[in-house]
Design goal:
Two copies of one chain form a homodimer.
Chain A: H1 3-17, H2 22-29, H3 33-46, E1 50-53, E2 59-62, H4 75-91, H5 97-109, H6 114-124, E3 126-128, H7 147-157, E4 159-166, E5 172-185, E6 188-195, E7 200-205, E8 209-219, H8 235-241
Helix pairs in contact in A: 1-3, 2-3, 4-5, 4-6, 6-7
The first copy, chain A, binds a DNA duplex (30 and 30 nucleotides) through helix 3.
DNA sequence: GAAAACGGTGCCAAATTTTGGCACCTTTGA
DNA sequence: TCAAAGGTGCCAAAATTTGGCACCGTTTTC
């Protein structure tokens, strides 16, 4: 029997019986007394609160208050948490990131609404870079509020997107691209997209995009976006865009 | 690395990259090609839908709609999430902080009250400064992975900690201190601790700490750490440490 | 048509983790 | 005082996981 399953069995038994002894548990799950003790210890590490009464007539009791993670989070809340943790990881060298990730994975799983999946698909394409100390933030403009819904659709359903773009020198152009990823270099947001007419990746500062719209019925394949680890190979490009 | 964690890492990577090859995955999670293949197989058994394109130019793709299982959030995971959100709020340039806070508040309600008190107490000890543009990051070393569990225990249970420290001039010393706060000046982390033998606060760069261990049974009282608002009065000190 | 870049399988020895047994400790109720 | 309870440290045996290796079948590229 797998460890995981045995742990589950122990928790179930504790829930059911209220009070149990280690030997009974060992008997029930078919493991040795020593192993059950180890399991109990592991469960405590995981956060289960298990009271133990030592001495004759004693036993184990699972605190029913422990491990209640029945939090019903709203979709925007989960979304916000996801971004927090992604940003945290991107900052680098932060302890506990793995734990936070693991926790979020569980939260997600507890919220099986379609809307969450939509947002998640959107977030899957999110790359968050290091804060650039030399960044010039002065010309960061507001983002078009229509962007988010359009790109949500784009990332979830892989539909192409059309928009107007104004580059660093103020030149305007019309684009039709395949959105492949989002790149966040706080506080700037970029869209990384494959441009079929140029047959190459291009990236667009989100606050320079206007009049975005979904191109109905025109879908695309995902490509390998050339990111290396968490380091942003577009650093030079983004600087150029400033 | 535990199997379960590797599986999570793989799912995360698949989500992030959209399209990946097995060799890339193996590289990323630090396992062999064969092991990753086995993991993929296991994930498929668990219900994840992973499409594979064989042949040159092919790769793996995770169906974002694919199944998710039940949730069980552990206290350390909530702990990690709290830190993430606190860090993000301090960074100041990402939206959605309020939402993330609201979400976490809901999660907290599900935990036993004493745990929440501990978590809050820890958060109170977390000070996150602004990124200094002039920061010299060149000598930031890797943190000892043993630090995390030791300091988690220290902050949650108020146990003293023993470790070796190497200061800016390379001098080594042994320390036994009471961890009072964590100071984050991205990307540097400092431990702010009361040193009983010196009868004063000392701070330690996390990446210069080695061989950390919990001093079993020796606990301490919290003290008032002399921070003012979110500004770090140790700025000079930390610079001295660079 | 050959080579290269993909995913995938079977097998086995080595590495790693888990397990069970044992001795022994402390606490508690009868 | 004794028996029944939880708990720890240690170690060798058992089980599982891992990493090579050889080899297959596709598909794209040259």
């Amino acid at each position: 029997m797998k460890v995981r399953h045995r742990h589950d069995a122990i928790v179930r038994s504790l829930r059911r019986n209220g009070m149990t002894t280690i030997d009974d548990l060992a008997d029930e799950v078919g493991a040795s007394r020593r192993t059950v003790l180890r399991d109990i210890s592991a469960l405590r590490d995981e956060g289960f609160v298990i009271h133990s009464d030592v001495g004759r007539g004693g036993g184990l009791q699972l605190d029913p208050q422990s491990m209640q993670t029945t939090a019903r989070l709203s979709v925007p809340e989960v979304f916000a948490l996801l971004i927090s943790v992604a940003a945290m990881r991107a900052a680098g060298n932060l302890p506990f990131s793995d734990l936070a990730d693991a926790g979020l994975a569980k939260i997600e799983k507890g919220l099986p609404s379609d809307k969450v999946k939509d947002l998640r698909a959107f977030l899957d394409c999110l790359h968050i870079g290091q804060l650039s100390p030399l960044q010039d933030l002065s010309d960061m403009g507001p983002m078009d509020p229509a962007l988010l819904p359009v790109f949500e659709t784009a990332f979830l359903q892989r539909t192409c997107v059309r928009f107007d773009y104004r580059d660093a020198k103020g030149r305007r152009s019309k684009r039709e691209v395949e959105p492949q990823a989002m790149l966040i270099l706080p506080p700037l947001w970029y869209l990384v997209a494959w441009d079929p007419t140029r047959d190459d990746f291009r990236h667009f500062r989100m606050d320079r995009i206007s009049r975005p719209e979904t191109i109905e019925g025109q879908t695309f394949r995902r490509r390998h976006v050339p990111f290396e680890d968490d380091v942003c190979p577009y650093r030079e490009l983004s600087r150029k865009h400033h």
